[in-house]
Amino acid sequence: MTATPPPSQCLEMPKLDSRIDASMVARVFKRYGRAHISGVLEDRSAKKVYEALENETPWRRTVCDNEGARDLGYSSATDLQEELPTLLALDNLPPGAFSYRYRNFRIDEAYEEEAHGHRFLMRFFEFLNSEPFLAFAREVTGISGIAFADAQATLYRAGDYLSVHDDNVAGKKRHAAYVFNFTPTWRPEWGGFLAFPDEFGHFHEAFAPSFNALNLLRVPTPHLVTQVASMAQEGRYSITGWLRGQ
After folding, report:
1. What pTM did the predictor assign?
2. For position 189, what pLDDT does the model report?
3. Which of 93, 101, 140, 152 has its C-alpha lying 20 to 30 A from 73's C-alpha?
4. Residue 246 and residue 1 in contact, taking contact as beta carbons nearer than 8 Å
5. DSSP state at residue 81
6. Helices (H), the chain
7. How many angstroms separate the CA atoms of 104 and 164, rounded?
8. Residue 53 burial (CB < 10 Å; 0-12/13-18/19+)?
9. What is the CA radius of gyration of the chain?
10. Closest CA relative to residue 159, chosen from 81, 96, 230
11. Is the dihedral of CA 31, 184, 191, 56 positive or negative?
12. CA angle 79, 84, 89 (to 5 degrees)
């Protein structure tokens, strides 16, 4: 997979913060199979990504229930009433069934279609597939076979969640999962944690929504996003995907 530049070349590509100690991150990842990196991008880059997510991203509701995974079309943040039957169906899934609901925008698909070249998220996709970032990813994960990244923007609001899964899909060559966090304001009681359960359902660790941070985890690793509470007053913004082999 190769990245072809979009029509707009006037937008500056994001940059990693030069102060990151990649060797330290690599030691943590090697020991635990996951790592949290705060301040991963230069401040200006992080602010521009957040502004793009908040102001110019065409969100669509995506769900997975007994009927499988599907998108419900592009929507505003306040049209939950129209989606109520689907949301109720998700709430009544049997225990242990894989399911999710949140808003997303498939950055990689939009990039390939060349229909959103004016959006800053297309530059972020170029950054993910640039040699500086891929080399960084190989160094911190110790996985030399990482060749490219796919990407989607995600927005979790009240009621949204992602149930337990491990990202291991035959033929996809997913070496590691990544989550770039761009949530400037969040409270612990609002939920939305990236959490890692053990066989008893206890959490080994959980990463809270934050701003300008990168979470990396080896595939397969069981994890979930805990449901966002009804009291949550902000959105949980991130860009997520997998670091993959050819």
Report:
1. 0.91
2. 97
3. 93
4. yes
5. G
6. 22-32, 43-55, 84-91, 107-113, 120-128, 131-141
7. 19
8. buried
9. 17
10. 230
11. negative
12. 145
Residue tagged 């894989």 (tokens): 98
CB count within 10 Å of CB 86 equals 16
Which residue type sits at 50?
A: Y
Find where tokens 């939305």 sit: 192
Element (H, E) at 152: strand 152-156
Q: Which two tokens stand for residue 65?
A: 């229930």
Sign, CA dihedral 64-65-70-75, equals negative
Superfamily per CATH, domain 22-59+104-244: q2cbj1_9rhob like domain (2.60.120.620)
Domain extents for the chain? 22-59+104-244
Specify the pLDDT at position 88. 65
What letter does residue 16 receive in the DSSP assignment?
B
Q: Which two tokens stand for residue 111?
A: 């990039």
Amino acid type, 185 = T
The pLDDT tens digits of the residues spanning 92-149 come to 788 888 999 999 999 999 999 987 888 999 999 999 999 999 999 999 999 999 999 9
pLDDT digits (tens, 9 = 90+) for 18-74: 999 999 999 999 999 999 999 999 999 999 999 999 999 999 999 998 888 988 887
Predicted pLDDT of residue 8: 44
Distance CA 116, CA 110 (A): 6
